[in-house]
Amino acid sequence: MRPRRLPLHLAATATIVVCLFPVYWMVTTSFKPNRDIQSESPRLLPQSWTLDHFRRAIDADGFGLFWRNSVLVTLGAVALALIVALGASFAVARMRWRGRRQFMLMVFVAQMAPWESLIIPVYIISRDTDMLDRLPTLTLVYFMMTLPFTIVVLRGFIATIPAELEESAQVDGCTRFGAFRHVAFPLLAPGLMATSLFGYITAWNEFAYANFLIIKQQDHRTLPVWLSSFHNTFGTDWGATMAASTLFALPALVIFLLLQRHVTSGFAAGAVKG
Amino acid sequence: MRRVGRPRADRTPPLTRPHRRPPGPARRATTSGPWPYLLVAPAVLGMLYLLVYPLARTVLISFQDFGLRQLILGDAHFVGLDNYTTLLSDPRFWTVVRRTFLFMAINVVLIMGISTLVALMAERLGRRWRTAVLSALVLTWAMPVVAATTVFQWLFHSEFGIVNHTLTGLGFSSFDGYPWLAHGPAAFTILVALVVWQSVPFAAITLYSALTTVPSELYEAARIDGASGVRIFRSITLPIVRPIFMLVLSLEVIWTFKAFVQIWVMTQGGPGDATTILPVYAVQTALAGQRYDLGSAASMVTVLLMSGVLVAYFRQMFRQEAER
User: Fold this and answer.
1) Burial zone of A2 (CB within 10 Å; 0-12 exposed, 13-18 middle, 19+ buried)
2) Which one, of A157, A247, A245, lies nearest residue A196 by Cα?
């Protein structure tokens, strides 16, 4: 058996290397002193380690502020999407009502919304309602970007929980929503986790709207915009740019690695049933 | 990875709130009253205000004379199909459309091919190897787009980039100081590499999880009947995996058609026009050229072109719905 599995393991090694090399190169570059970065013979490991690049990235204008903005916008959007989607997917999965099919159709269509095409009208609407340059605008847009997917996945999860479980709880004296909260909600944890991760990465990542809707109030920029402008200002400073990229990517990388199993299986369930 | 994280129904739920009230008439799922509408209302209102309304505004602007002056004064008037005529008679626009389809096709073929191979590989691996591969995929997936784009710029840096260094080291001396982003085809290639690298994880993981849903008894039975590996793949694996394969395919078509951030951050459509695809073209026209009307018209054409793809997607969706 052994020799036959060798090609398989070689392919697996190649996959891992191709996947991880850019991430690895980003992290190690951010620890290398400048003479190693601008060297004729790049090394896989830093000869000596330095934190200078991180210091420069953190000391750059408004770094803490942009982190705070990104966290606020992301958490706000994810929480809003979860609450709204939970109600909607419960109604779709558990109740029979006129317009249910049409609603799901609308959700499927909304999933493919051409967001890049809507920047101009969203800009105009935000300006006319005095919402330009404000973080809540971004929160609302990101909420909307993640909502359809969240509804689809949560509906799939709720549908797998037998309604009889809740009905027996209702027979035991729970209200309908009490039954949902105490019986179905705990079973929904993997779905909630998968969808909130999806929302998290969408909102944490989003660049176009953050770039075009936050114009005058530079203090309200988010990390992706900051990173791209940082990179332009410090164009030749690749150490600081890679340190900044690392600081920006780190939360996503850590969370996804910790929840690796749940991410894959949660998405799988959503995709298979969605 | 074996355990699928969906809720297991066989577990007895904890009944934390027992017998507080006498059991009323158990409401069945069929009688719902106003509740479903109240539950769905926030989602519907959100979609109407944040999605449908902006979309309607885009359509409106695309039929108006709408530049910087109209944006500030709000005195836009209708010009009928003028914007569309201007747009469709611009040869540059058609080059961009062709390039968009080329970009999409190359990306999607590579993404689906590589993802299928990775998924098949992951299924055959032992537990440890599989966990390693899936973890690597998830990490790639979690890499924020702007960060990944910046890293690719660094990898392909003309002087200090590891790619040029490696290629030179391998004997391709013409790559010594090769300015990737200054050459159209080279910049296009880098963007394809970046988009493929970012998209394979989602596709591979989804396809892999689809493969795991194939009951192993079917494989055993087929093997006992003496079916070959190719035959097993064609007769058992493919029919079960096909709906999800189609789903992922349609999603990747849509996503690569709309690729914007990578291009905007890395090249802004340059050098020249070499990496300008439709979404980039629309934003360039609207925001840099301050022709919001032409930008909106370009967006609408993008949406229409994509609808062709969406039709396939919906047919897939409805087939799944019907099976439920």
Assistant:
1) exposed
2) A157
Q: Which residue of A has its CA nearest to B13?
A: A183
Helices (H), chain A: 2-31, 34-37, 52-59, 63-94, 100-111, 119-128, 135-160, 163-171, 176-179, 185-187, 189-205, 208-213, 223-233, 238-258, 260-273
* Beta carbons of A264 and B138 less than 8 Å apart: yes
Q: What is the pLDDT of residue B317?
A: 66
Residue B302's Cβ-count burial label (10 Å; 0-12, 13-18, 19+) is buried
**Confidence label for B322 from pLDDT (cuts 50, 70 and 90):** low
Touching A: B residues 72-111, CB under 8 Å: none
Percent of chain A with pLDDT over 90: 31
| Complex ipTM value | 0.85
Which of A87, A117, A189 is opposite residue B302, by nearest beta carbon? A117
- Which residue has tokens 């005195």? B75
User: Does residue A93 sit at the B interface (CB-CB below 8 Å)?
Assistant: no
**Which carries the bigger pLDDT value, residue B258 or residue B56?**
B56
- Nearest-angstrom CA–CA distance, A84 and A125: 23
Q: What's the sign of the alpha-carbon dihedral B306, B312, B315, B321?
A: negative
- Enumerate the residues of chain B whose CB falls inside 8 A of the CB of residue A262: 5
- Residue A217 touches partner B, C-beta closer than 8 Å: no
Q: Which amino acid is at B7?
A: P
Least confident range from A130-134, A252-256, B318-322: namely B318-322
Count CB-CB contacts under 10 A for residue B174.
8
Q: What is the token pair recorded at A66?
A: 């942009």
pLDDT, one tens digit per residue, over A40-62 is 677 788 888 889 889 988 888 78
Nearest alpha carbon to residue A171 among B274, B62, B22? B22
> Chain A interface, mutation test: which of B4, B40, B83, most A Cβ atoms within 10 Å?
B40
Asked if residues B248 and B210 have their Cβ atoms less than 8 Å apart, the reply is no
A81/B contact by beta carbon, under 8 A: no
- pLDDT tens figures, A62-118: 888 999 999 999 999 999 999 999 999 999 988 888 999 999 988 988 887 888 888
Q: Which residue of A has its CA nearest to B311?
A: A109
Give me A256's structure tokens: 């996804």
User: How close B181 gets to chain A, by Cα (Å)?
Assistant: 14
Quick one: what percent of chain A has pLDDT higher than 70? 93
pLDDT tens by residue, B119-153: 999 988 988 999 899 999 989 988 999 999 999 99
- DSSP-derived 3-state class of residue B64: strand
The phi, psi pair for B64, rounded to 5°, reads: -115, 165
Angle, helix A63-94 to helix A189-205, in steps of 10 degrees: 140
Partner B contacted by A163 (CB < 8 A):
yes
User: pLDDT value at position A169?
Assistant: 83
Q: How far is A131 from chain B (nearest CA, A)?
A: 13
* Tokens of residue A144, six digits: 């909307």
Average pLDDT, chain B: 84
B147 interface with A at CB cutoff 8 Å: yes
